[in-house]
């Protein structure tokens, strides 16, 4: 009961200390990353060289975009398990289109984003206006989008020799020593983060997630905001699917299957609350870096495959625990400050 | 064993005569109902095998059905097989996902007199009549190492990427490659440094290739018997700017690796003709059903357009026609 | 609220849908309509069905457990270990069920004591438990069992009635009784409806939730016994990917994913519906992707149910009020 009281008590001053609290949440994942890095650096001499660190962040780049997209939906107290299927659907259709229209230029990148946005909108409509539980709605569309991709592909795949050269060459570029994928991911996450923080619509996304009932009372059109969150998620998944296709070079119907859970894991590790209202997209993106770091470090250390599954699973539980503990600390400190001012 | 399979085929004939009322009018050596299920549908490799099977069935006047789930899930494969059984086919062809988990349902099929043939990936030996193997494990291992030699004639460090530790083909390939590298002077230029797993997933394969290059700075060749991992590895090498220093090889569909061979970043990949493998598997199944094939080791037979083959130990028929794709031959693959 | 009571029972609709699906199936394939065939086809749904019973209890409490399939894999590997050392089945069964229940309870403890969201916890333990199953059973797993271990999963009575199906029916009856006729069940619904009120009413919420998670784990242990009999193979990757089907069954059965509402009978009926459709499509050799799309669409329709129900209710209200106005 005391904890329940604490939540109620903390709710009032939360707005003024909101930024501070959010910073602390992100610092949780940063701390986790630093500790993880320190362990790997001690155990493996190759870990800390620039090339390896660059390899880690480029492996994490696409997932970090998807995790950030997932985070937007999570912040509204919803969930999207169709992200992998949206990526696959958007990527396959776009790749197939590009294969048939070799002359098409970089304008092509709009195609997966539009497709993704439409698929995301359908999710959003089901959840926001159909009042369907987000888990179930997106479980359903996950099967539908993936099934349609299969039916469209008819047992074919789009291979690297069919894709326009520029697509493959662009994702391999390095600008000032940084892989272009990483730069793109940072830019996307930064824009998204700024949007959520500095734009009224963005802040409403948080408001809807922290208290949907109160938001409705205050005149927020919760349905529209939830729909918007799903559309943003879909657009970014479409983009991520396109990048995935260009990066791997072979576009198959199973592209990004399983990413629904990976993106959720990244978001959870990054301190995004699955109960809505709190967390930063940057945290989710860093969560993706944590997962990529674990993958990379365990290869360097030659840890057997099964231990990798075990360790990654435990890391997710560990991160969730750390997040709750940090959250409780924040509430406690907020409460004591409040008492102090009174 | 011989008596048992003879009895089984006799039972199969009896069953088709007794139950398949529609087929009684047809001659005894055609009009069989053959059902095929792959590991999963929608993968070009298995679709090619299915086309081959269909061609053979058409040629021989058999009925051919191809069905399966859209992802590799053993419980779904068992469900498909169960549904096949209900439809009373004369024969079942499958590429097993888990050699043991499909065994109970296959044994049930054999008890009903259905001829069971595995292709591409075997089931437990007592749960099927024949296994049409694309290549013996040794031959597959040797082919991949030959490719690695084309990539890096001077030898060096090699790492393996398998789908998962539970995939029997991949584990066996790796075992024999290690054996060759240890014992055969031709391949002793190589040293094995690592084995990683990528679940037949392209992004995971790509990341694993990147991580392997980080973990082993002197790495020369990444070898994978997964047709997903080998092209993804080639792409990762190019993207990391290590083309010409590190090579990816192993089994891959020609379309998937064409561009890397053409731009010179890779030199050699291998595979066999999945179309002809499906054709052969269906053809031998037909021969067995028609009573024209004894599964005694050493028996030689003609399989239509696919040529002539010999039955090996334990009902294994090795297709055994490796194809190595280089810049000059990749366009002639023909499937 | 009275409006909700007047809508046709979801269970009734499920039965009608199942009959429609059966009619459709017999139209799709001449092999469908046979008692033997239908009985035999139930085997495919026993292990996901048992998992669904456990998950339903957890969902009624407003939580979720997506690690159940991983617990099954762990249980299967543990059963094989027991068989390997020659342990008698009557000893191994309670042992494995207890071990699996402990894994479930561990999820529950993390959720209730540390106040972690169950989705996050079980997302993690899903990987961790599967890793554990591999660590215990190695990559090769086990393929040979004492015949007493495989009895439940592989035996057919009268040539067509799978023992595993009887086990499922018994467990389903047990869970229906537990959730609808006992104090435990009533408390579960009370907590799912309103945690605070239940707490004030003196229900130990944390304890109850942990028990529910343990029950789910224990049922997964029983499902693993069915698994080894049916598939003759125990390995860390057993039942990988089946959790989606399990969640689908629970939701289609009418259990509110936010807790507190829905009946266990509905879950059982939903399993029959899904089984009938899958069986029919399979016998018609329908392409895998088509099946996926059909099942996904069905799930969406299942959850649009409240909307449909509300639509019907509104229509009725309008009719009623217009009738009233006419008077």
UniProtKB/TrEMBL annotation, chain A:
<dbReference type="GO" id="GO:0005886">
    <property type="term" value="C:plasma membrane"/>
</dbReference>
<feature type="transmembrane region" description="Helical">
    <location>
        <begin position="24"/>
        <end position="43"/>
    </location>
</feature>
<dbReference type="Pfam" id="PF02653">
    <property type="entry name" value="BPD_transp_2"/>
</dbReference>
<dbReference type="GO" id="GO:0022857">
    <property type="term" value="F:transmembrane transporter activity"/>
</dbReference>
<feature type="transmembrane region" description="Helical">
    <location>
        <begin position="105"/>
        <end position="128"/>
    </location>
</feature>
<dbReference type="InterPro" id="IPR001851">
    <property type="entry name" value="ABC_transp_permease"/>
</dbReference>
<comment type="subunit">
    <text>The complex is composed of two ATP-binding proteins (LsrA), two transmembrane proteins (LsrC and LsrD) and a solute-binding protein (LsrB).</text>
</comment>
<keyword id="KW-1003">Cell membrane</keyword>
<feature type="transmembrane region" description="Helical">
    <location>
        <begin position="81"/>
        <end position="99"/>
    </location>
</feature>
<keyword id="KW-0472">Membrane</keyword>
<feature type="transmembrane region" description="Helical">
    <location>
        <begin position="173"/>
        <end position="196"/>
    </location>
</feature>
<feature type="transmembrane region" description="Helical">
    <location>
        <begin position="225"/>
        <end position="245"/>
    </location>
</feature>
<keyword id="KW-0812">Transmembrane</keyword>
<keyword id="KW-0813">Transport</keyword>
<keyword id="KW-0997">Cell inner membrane</keyword>
TrEMBL record, chain B:
<dbReference type="GO" id="GO:0030246">
    <property type="term" value="F:carbohydrate binding"/>
</dbReference>
<keyword id="KW-0732">Signal</keyword>
<dbReference type="InterPro" id="IPR025997">
    <property type="entry name" value="SBP_2_dom"/>
</dbReference>
<dbReference type="GO" id="GO:0030288">
    <property type="term" value="C:outer membrane-bounded periplasmic space"/>
</dbReference>
<dbReference type="InterPro" id="IPR050555">
    <property type="entry name" value="Bact_Solute-Bind_Prot2"/>
</dbReference>
<protein>
    <submittedName>
        <fullName>Monosaccharide ABC transporter substrate-binding protein, CUT2 family (TC 3.A.1.2.-)</fullName>
    </submittedName>
</protein>
<dbReference type="InterPro" id="IPR028082">
    <property type="entry name" value="Peripla_BP_I"/>
</dbReference>
<feature type="signal peptide">
    <location>
        <begin position="1"/>
        <end position="27"/>
    </location>
</feature>
<comment type="similarity">
    <text>Belongs to the bacterial solute-binding protein 2 family.</text>
</comment>
<dbReference type="Pfam" id="PF13407">
    <property type="entry name" value="Peripla_BP_4"/>
</dbReference>
<feature type="domain" description="Periplasmic binding protein">
    <location>
        <begin position="35"/>
        <end position="292"/>
    </location>
</feature>
UniProtKB/TrEMBL annotation, chain C:
<feature type="transmembrane region" description="Helical">
    <location>
        <begin position="45"/>
        <end position="75"/>
    </location>
</feature>
<dbReference type="GO" id="GO:0005886">
    <property type="term" value="C:plasma membrane"/>
</dbReference>
<feature type="transmembrane region" description="Helical">
    <location>
        <begin position="290"/>
        <end position="308"/>
    </location>
</feature>
<keyword id="KW-0813">Transport</keyword>
<feature type="transmembrane region" description="Helical">
    <location>
        <begin position="212"/>
        <end position="229"/>
    </location>
</feature>
<keyword id="KW-1003">Cell membrane</keyword>
<keyword id="KW-0812">Transmembrane</keyword>
<dbReference type="Pfam" id="PF02653">
    <property type="entry name" value="BPD_transp_2"/>
</dbReference>
<feature type="transmembrane region" description="Helical">
    <location>
        <begin position="118"/>
        <end position="137"/>
    </location>
</feature>
<protein>
    <recommendedName>
        <fullName>Autoinducer 2 import system permease protein LsrD</fullName>
    </recommendedName>
</protein>
<dbReference type="InterPro" id="IPR001851">
    <property type="entry name" value="ABC_transp_permease"/>
</dbReference>
<feature type="transmembrane region" description="Helical">
    <location>
        <begin position="241"/>
        <end position="257"/>
    </location>
</feature>
<feature type="transmembrane region" description="Helical">
    <location>
        <begin position="87"/>
        <end position="106"/>
    </location>
</feature>
<keyword id="KW-0997">Cell inner membrane</keyword>
<comment type="subunit">
    <text>The complex is composed of two ATP-binding proteins (LsrA), two transmembrane proteins (LsrC and LsrD) and a solute-binding protein (LsrB).</text>
</comment>
């Amino acid at each position: 009961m005391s904890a329940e009281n604490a939540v109620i008590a903390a709710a009032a001053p939360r707005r003024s200390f909101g930024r501070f609290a959010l910073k602390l949440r992100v610092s949780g994942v940063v701390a986790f990353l630093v500790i993880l890095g320190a362990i790997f650096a001690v155990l493996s001499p190759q870990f800390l060289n620039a090339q390896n660190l660059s390899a880690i962040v480029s492996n994490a780049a696409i997932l970090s975009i998807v995790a950030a997209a997932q985070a937007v939906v999570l912040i509204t107290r919803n969930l999207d398990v169709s992200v992998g299927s949206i990526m696959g659907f958007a990527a396959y259709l776009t790749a197939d289109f590009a294969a048939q229209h070799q002359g098409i230029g970089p304008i092509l990148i709009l195609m997966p984003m539009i497709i993704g946005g439409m698929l995301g909108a359908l999710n959003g409509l089901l959840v926001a206006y159909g009042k369907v539980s987000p888990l179930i709605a997106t479980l359903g569309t996950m099967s539908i989008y993936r099934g349609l991709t299969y039916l469209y592909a008819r047992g074919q795949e789009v291979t690297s020799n069919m894709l326009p050269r520029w697509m493959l060459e662009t994702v391999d570029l390095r600008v000032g020593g940084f892989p272009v994928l990483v730069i793109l991911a940072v830019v996307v996450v930064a824009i998204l983060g700024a949007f959520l923080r500095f734009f009224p619509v963005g802040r409403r996304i948080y408001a809807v997630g922290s208290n949907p009932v109160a938001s409705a009372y205050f005149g927020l059109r919760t349905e529209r905001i939830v729909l918007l969150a799903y559309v943003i998620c879909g657009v970014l998944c479409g983009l991520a699917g396109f990048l995935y296709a260009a990066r791997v070079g072979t576009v198959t119907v199973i592209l990004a299957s399983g990413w629904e859970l990976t993106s959720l894991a990244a978001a959870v590790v990054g301190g995004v609350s699955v109960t809505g209202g709190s967390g930063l997209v940057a945290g989710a993106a860093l969560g993706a870096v944590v997962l990529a770091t674990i993958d990379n470090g365990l290869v360097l250390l030659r840890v057997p495959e099964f231990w990798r599954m075990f360790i990654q699973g435990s890391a997710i539980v560990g991160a969730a625990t750390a997040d709750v503990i940090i959250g409780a600390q924040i509430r406690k400190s907020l409460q004591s400050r409040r008492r102090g001012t009174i | 064993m011989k008596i048992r399979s003879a009895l089984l085929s006799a039972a199969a004939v009896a069953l088709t005569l007794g139950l398949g009322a529609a087929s009684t009018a047809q001659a005894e050596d055609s009009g069989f109902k053959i059902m095929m299920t792959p590991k999963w549908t929608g993968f070009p490799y298995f679709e090619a095998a299915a086309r081959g099977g269909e061609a053979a069935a058409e040629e021989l006047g058999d009925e051919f059905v191809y069905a399966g789930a859209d992802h590799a899930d053993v419980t779904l494969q068992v469900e498909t097989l169960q549904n096949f059984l209900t439809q009373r086919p004369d024969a079942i062809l499958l590429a097993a996902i888990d050699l043991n988990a499909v065994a109970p349902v296959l044994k049930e099929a054999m008890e009903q007199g259905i001829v069971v043939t595995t292709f591409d990936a075997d089931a437990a030996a007592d749960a099927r009549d024949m296994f049409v193997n694309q290549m013996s494990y040794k031959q597959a291992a040797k082919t991949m190492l030959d490719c690695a030699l084309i990539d890096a004639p001077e030898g060096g460090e090699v790492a393996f990427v398998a789908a998962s530790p539970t995939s029997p083909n991949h584990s066996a390939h790796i075992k024999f490659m290690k054996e060759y590298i240890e014992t055969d002077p031709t391949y002793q230029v190589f040293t094995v440094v690592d084995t990683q797993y990528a679940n037949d997933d392209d992004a995971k394969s790509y990341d694993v290739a990147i991580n392997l290059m980080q973990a082993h700075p002197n790495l020369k060749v990444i070898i994978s018997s997964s047709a997903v991992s080998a092209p993804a590895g080639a792409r990762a090498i190019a993207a990391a700017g290590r083309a010409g220093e590190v090579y990816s090889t192993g089994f891959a569909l020609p379309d998937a690796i064409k561009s890397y061979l053409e731009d010179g970043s890779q030199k050699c990949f291998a595979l066999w003709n999945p179309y002809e493998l499906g054709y052969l598997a269906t053809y031998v199944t037909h021969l067995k059903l028609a009573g024209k094939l004894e599964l005694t080791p050493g028996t030689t037979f003609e399989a239509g357009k696919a040529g002539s083959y010999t039955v090996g130990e334990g009902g294994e028929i090795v297709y055994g026609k490796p194809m190595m794709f280089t810049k000059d031959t990749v366009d002639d693959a023909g499937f | 609220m009275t409006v909700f009571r007047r809508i046709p029972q979801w269970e009734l609709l499920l039965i009608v849908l199942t009959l429609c699906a059966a009619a459709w199936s017999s139209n799709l394939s001449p092999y469908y309509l046979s008692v033997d065939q239908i009985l035999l086809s139930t085997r495919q749904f026993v292990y996901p069905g048992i998992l669904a019973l456990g998950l339903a209890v957890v969902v009624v409490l407003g939580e979720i457990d997506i690690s159940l399939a991983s617990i099954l894999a762990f249980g299967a590997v543990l059963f094989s270990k027991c068989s390997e050392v020659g342990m008698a089945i009557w000893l191994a069964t309670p042992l494995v069920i207890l071990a699996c229940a402990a894994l479930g309870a561990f999820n529950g403890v993390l959720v209730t004591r540390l106040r972690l969201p169950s989705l996050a916890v079980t997302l993690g333990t899903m990987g961790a438990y599967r890793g554990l199953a591999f660590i215990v059973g190695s990559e090769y797993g086990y393929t040979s069992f004492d015949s007493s271990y495989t009895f439940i999963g592989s035996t057919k009575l009268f040539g067509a009635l799978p023992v595993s199906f009887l086990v499922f029916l018994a467990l389903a009856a047990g869970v229906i009784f537990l959730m609808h006729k006992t104090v435990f069940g009533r408390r579960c619904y009370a907590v799912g409806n309103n945690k605070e009120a239940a707490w004030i009413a003196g229900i130990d919420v944390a304890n109850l939730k942990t028990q529910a998670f343990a029950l789910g784990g224990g049922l997964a242990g029983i499902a693993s016994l069915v698994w080894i009999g049916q598939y003759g193979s125990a390995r860390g990757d057993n039942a990988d990917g089946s959790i989606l089907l399990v969640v689908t069954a629970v939701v289609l059965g009418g259990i509110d994913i936010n807790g507190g509402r829905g009946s266990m009978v509905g879950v059982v009926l939903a399993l029959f519906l899904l089984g009938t459709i899958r069986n029919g499509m399979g016998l018609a050799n329908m392409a895998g992707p088509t099946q996926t799309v059909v099942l996904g669409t069905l799930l969406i329709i299942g959850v649009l149910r409240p909307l449909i129900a509300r639509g019907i209710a509104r229509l009725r209200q309008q009719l009623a009020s217009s009738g009233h106005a006419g008077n």
